[in-house]
Write a structure and sequence with these properties.
There is one protein chain. It is built from three helices and no strands. It is mostly helical. The chain has one domain.
C-alpha cells in the first residue's frame, strides 16, 4: 500500500513539475502585427506603372528558371 501511495505522489509531483515548464510559441506582438498589415496595405495600394523599368537580365533568368520548375512540379502532380 505504501508503494502505491509513493508512486501516486511521484506521478502527481511529476505532473506538477511538467506544468510549471511553459512552452512559448512564436507569436508576434501587436505592434509587429500592425506593421505587417501596414506593409500589405501599402503594397496593395501601389499604382501600376504604365512603362515599368526593364528587368535585369539576371533577374529574368531567375524568373524563367522558377517558372520552368513550377511547370515541372505541376506536370508531376498531374501524373
Amino acid at each position: 500500500m505504501r508503494k502505491l501511495i509513493w508512486v501516486t505522489l511521484a506521478l502527481f509531483a511529476g505532473a506538477a513539475f511538467a506544468n510549471e515548464q511553459v512552452v512559448q510559441g512564436q507569436s508576434l506582438k501587436v505592434k509587429e502585427r500592425l506593421q505587417v498589415i501596414e506593409l500589405i496595405n501599402i503594397a496593395a495600394e501601389k499604382e501600376q506603372v504604365a512603362n515599368p523599368e526593364p528587368l535585369d537580365a539576371e533577374l529574368l533568368a531567375i524568373l524563367e528558371e522558377a517558372e520552368a520548375l513550377e511547370e515541372g512540379q505541376e506536370t508531376k502532380q498531374a501524373e
